[in-house]
Specification:
Structural class: alpha/beta
Number of strands: 19
CATH topology of the largest domain: FAD/NAD(P)-binding domain
CATH superfamily of the largest domain: FAD/NAD(P)-binding domain
Order of helices and strands: EHEHEEEEEEHEHEHHEEEEEEEEEH
CATH class of the largest domain: Alpha Beta
Shape: elongated
Radius of gyration: 21 Å
Strand content: 25-35%
């Protein structure tokens, strides 16, 4: 099988890349290991179209509708496991291994949750906020009992607000972020996109109005065979579930498995080395979206379109004067 453009990942970047590549007259195959489009950020978009994060959910539903109405060939439940020079990709689908040759490959692999290895983090009952949000979005499930959240980052507050809006109860939120005076230098840039700032403040306000919020840098989980308590500031608190979060980082499982594809270490995480068009150190392989550097869903969608236009340029759809 051969296509002009193979896109891996049906999140904001991947869907946008596939739609743009198809608009340029290219044959496109979109692969994703999940059962439906949306990626992590737009997972269960229709069911999340109300409450905290609703605006983003509506954007995801609209993007999925565009994909459904397009002529992009798409295969869900497909797991890509190797890319070789050519470029040639190998993936599994419905228990069978398949091979596809592509003129250009766009990797839009999104993010993965950064681990927060506190003492006791491997106890049953301790899991990531990202995993808990997947359960909430895909199955409407919330943890029961005495539920604590600990860590830092926007997703911590978004999930807390979403859980409360869905009828969940939280025993407390532990803000483990460190105050850095140098962060004030970035405030003018933050004010250029006030919507993000206001949404974050809104989530925090909703949570603080209903849940005790603590500030501690050191937290541990304890229990005999499973989580029974958390300890902060020398004091123990009964707990049945502890959800940890320390931000998200680019998902580089695929890119780091490709021989010769260069990476760099930035902002505490590895990311593929790419130019402004998404071109990597290997001709014919591009990266797009948060898998190339975490900037959010809106930026990821734009990056997907740019990478698709670069693929069209590389395949001779237009010249350098139009690039």
């Amino acid at each position: 099988m051969r296509v002009d453009v193979l896109v891996l990942g049906a999140g904001p970047a991947g869907i946008s890349a596939a739609l743009e590549a198809r608009a340029q007259g290219l044959s496109v195959l979109l692969l994703d290991e999940n059962a439906a489009p949306g990626g992590q950020v737009h997972r269960g978009a229709k069911a999340s179209a109300a409450g905290p994060g609703a605006g983003q959910a509506r954007s995801g539903a609209a993007l999925a509708a565009q994909l459904a109405a397009s002529r992009v060939e798409r295969r869900f439940g497909a797991v890509l496991w190797a890319i070789e020079p050519g470029p040639v990709a190998f993936f599994s689908e419905q228990g069978a291994a398949r091979k596809i040759t592509a003129g250009q490959i766009i990797l839009a692999c999104g993010t993965t949750e950064r681990a927060l290895p506190i003492p006791g983090w491997t106890l049953p009952g301790v899991m990531g906020v990202g995993a808990a949000q997947i359960l909430l979005k895909s199955a409407g499930l919330l943890p029961e009992g005495r539920v604590w959240l600990a860590g830092q980052g926007p997703l911590l507050w978004l999930y807390a607000a979403q859980a409360l809006a869905r009828g969940g109860a939280l025993a407390g939120v532990i803000d483990m972020s460190e105050w850095r005076p140098g962060a004030l230098a970035h405030l003018p840039k933050a004010l250029l996109a006030p919507g993000y700032l206001l949404r974050g403040l809104s989530w925090m306000r909703q949570v603080r109005a209903r849940v005790p919020v603590y500030r501690h840098r050191k937290v541990s989980a304890e229990g005999d065979g499973r989580l029974q308590r958390i300890v902060m500031g020398g004091q123990g608190h009964a707990a049945d579930t502890l959800l940890l979060h320390d931000g998200v980082v680019p998902n580089t499982q695929i890119t780091r498995a490709i021989q010769g594809l260069s990476h760099r270490f930035r902002a505490g995480a590895w990311e593929p080395l790419a130019d402004e068009y998404g071109c990597t150190s290997i001709p014919g392989i591009l990266v797009a979206g948060d898998g190339a550097g975490v900037f959010g869903a809106e930026a990821a969608a734009l990056a997907g379109r740019i990478s698709a236009l670069q693929a069209a340029y590389a395949l001779g759809r237009f010249g350098a004067e139009q690039r």
